[in-house]
Write a structure and sequence with these properties.
The protein is α/β, with parallel strands linked by helices. The chain has two domains: 231 residues, Spore Coat Polysaccharide Biosynthesis Protein SpsA, Chain A, CATH 3.90.550.10; 52 residues. 46% of the residues lie in helices and 20% in strands. The protein has eleven helices and nine strands. Strand 2, helix 2 and strand 3 form a beta-alpha-beta unit. The longest helix has 27 residues. It is globular. The termini are far apart.
Length: 286
Amino acid sequence: MAKKASLIIPTKDKNSRLKLLMLSLNQQVNNDYEVIIVMDGCTQDTVDEFKVFLERELAFKPIVVIQPRNVGRAAARNIGIQRASGEIVIFIDDDRIPADNYIQKHIDAHNAHSEDCVIVGARFEVNFTNNEIIEFYERKTIQNDFNVFIKDAIEANPGIHNFFSPKLAQKFRWLYFFTGNVSVSKSLLEKIGGFDENFTGWGWEDVELGYRLVKENVPFYKNNTILNYHLKHEHDIDYVFQSEKHNYRLFQKKMKADLIARCILSIEHLQITIFLSYLKKKANSV
């Protein structure tokens, strides 16, 4: 029997954050929903630790797909889509803490519209050390109290599309198809072929899928009541630099004659490059 929704979480060796995410879902998941975790090339220690956590801590049983070799975000999400039985597919990253009724709010937002659509939630950034995150887990704070997150949360950078006129914002709505907090019907994902697995490493694989959805005239609806909190963490800046550049060039080629969209993408890429350069300079100065 089909579920109303499938929540897909790709993960790579971030158990401290992933366990908090799963605890936050304890009071949300019922027989109408399923949670699919794709462990994408995780170490055996990560897998073993997570298995113990599942047995001892959770009130529900997620579907866990163990991918022995790291295949990347696009391919890992496609694996999750293939396993999904939900009519609605909700994407969330392994370092996001969903607020109350997160899954049901995504479903309700889809039910409010007669056509297949994309629902984009809101993201807030939270800075915690890994030790603080472990402490939250040990105290089980996350199950009952979001005040600690809400208190210091900062809304994520809205991006260039936030400065467009309403008409242009609709045209370039693919710019905010971020898989940290977005949902879409499974039938649409199957129609456009899921994520392009040529996008590897960090960046653009989700926005590119959003671009193809726009080409299919799929409507997007922003819903700021659907919240999650991003537990920020350090990145391998050199790796992010190289993979973002590769994916950006691939995206540009796929746009072909769409010159305005290519120009907008170039501006977004420049912003990311400047920001990553700043992070690298800051790290080197420490």
